Amino acid sequence: MAAGGWRGGVLKRERVEQLPGLCLEVTSLSSPRLTLEEASSWKRSFDCVLASPAGRSVFVEFLQTEHSDENMAFWLACEELKREQSQEQVCEKAKKIYLDYISILSPKEVSIDATVRESINSSLARPSAHIFNEAQAQVYALMHRDSYPRFLSSPLYKSLEQRLSALTCDT
C-alpha cells in the first residue's frame, strides 16, 4: 500500500504532510469520492492534475518519492500569494517564499535560472503578489516536462487507476 494509504478507491490520509508556509487545500477525498474518470482525466494534461485537489495531493505524494515536492510546494505558495489582497500580507508571504524556496541557503531551494533569481532579489524590497511569476513558470515547466510524464507511468498512479477501475467494475 502506498504511503498515505489507498483503500477502496478513496484516499485516506493517516497523516497529512504539512508543506511549510501554505494551505495545501488537501480535502477529504472520501467526499466526494475520487472516481476513475477524475484520475484518468489527469492523463489529458498536467493542468488537469493541478486543477484537481485529489490530483495535487497524489502528485505531491509522487514528488515526495522523487525528493522534489518543494517544486509543487513553491508553485502552490505562489498561487496563494497571487490571491493575497493585503500588501502587508504580500510582503510577509513573499519573504517567506523567498526564504523557503529561492534563497541559495534554503534546503528546499527550487531550480531557477540566475537571471530570474536576480530579478527577484532586486524586487524583494517592494514585492508585488506577482514577484515570483517567472520563477513559478520555470518550476511549472520543469514539473510538466520532467515529473508529470514519470508520474503518469509511476506505480503510484498505475495502482490508483487499477484500484479505481476495480471499484468501478464492482458497482
Structure description:
The chain is mainly α and 171 residues long. 59% of the residues lie in helices and 2% in strands. It is built from 8 helices and 2 strands; from the N terminus they run E-E-H-H-H-H-H-H-H-H. A two-stranded antiparallel ribbon has the order 1-2. A hairpin with a 2-residue loop joins strand 1 (6-7) and strand 2. The longest helix has 20 residues, at 133-152. The radius of gyration is 17 Å and the shape is elongated.
Total helical segments:
8
Calculate the mean pLDDT score and round it.
84
What's the number of extended β-strand segments? Answer: 2
Question: Cα-atom Rg, whole angstroms?
Answer: 17 Å
Largest sheet: 2 strands, antiparallel
Distance between the termini: 22 Å
Q: Overall 3D geometry?
A: elongated
User: Strand arrangement, largest sheet?
Assistant: 1-2
Indicate the low-confidence ranges by residue numbers. Answer: 1-31
Secondary structure layout plus pairing:
Blueprint: E1 6-7, E2 10-11, H1 36-41, H2 46-51, H3 53-65, H4 69-82, H5 87-102, H6 114-123, H7 133-152, H8 155-170
Antiparallel strand pairs: 1-2
Compact summary:
The chain is mainly alpha-helical and about 170 residues long. It is built from eight helices and two strands; from the N terminus they run E-E-H-H-H-H-H-H-H-H.
Which descriptors would you attach to this protein?
single chain, 8 helices, two-stranded antiparallel ribbon, mainly alpha, 2 strands, 2% strand, disordered N terminus, 59% helix, 171 residues
